[in-house]
Amino acid sequence: xxxxxxxxxxxxxxxxFRMLLESQDDITVLGEASNGGEALRMTAELRPDVxxxxxxxxxxxxxxxxRRIVATGERTRVLILTTFDLDEYAHAGLRAGASGFxxxxxxxxxxxxxxxxxxTGDAVVAPxxxxxxxxxxxxxxxxxxxxxxxxxxxxxxxxxxxxxxxILTVIGQGWTNTEIxxxxxxxxxxxxTHVGRILAKTGSRDRVQAVILAYDTRLVEPS
Length: 223
Known about the structure:
single chain; 223 residues; alpha/beta; globular
């Protein structure tokens, strides 16, 4: 059973999300918050698996609430939903530690699939934003002339096998598990095992952090 806290300042939005989520046998809504401060407090009290987080809310916004929730080190993950298809919001949300970002006009099936994916440690980004976000992040990295670790020598990668490093690279390029399995001629269950080991060995909270690691260590370069 996946437990969810809904954080949105619009009562009708919260009602709609609750109706959708509670129609599913494997999802339980633990509560609703109308701003970031409430979301932070209720997350500490209820410890949901996922917070469905709006960005624009009065008082503490969804970005700051996400940052504080993630900083606690607890197991709760954040899936950001917003009306605005703007890179700056998505980039800020993911940098704050969100495990996913979807636009509110997503189909119900997309939202449910995204929520379940985030709950199991995967990452979800609205398809139209993925490559723009990765490249936007990459262009904020130090240039080659600065003193930075490069992929062959970065200590975060030292425990990875050659195959795990290969898979981390294509994760950074935006490949899904299904695409990795097909292109590398592996069973999808094997890919999932490799991904789990990569996250554990590198200390990555989820797939989003693994993507950022791939850019940080220059396994992936911006297009």
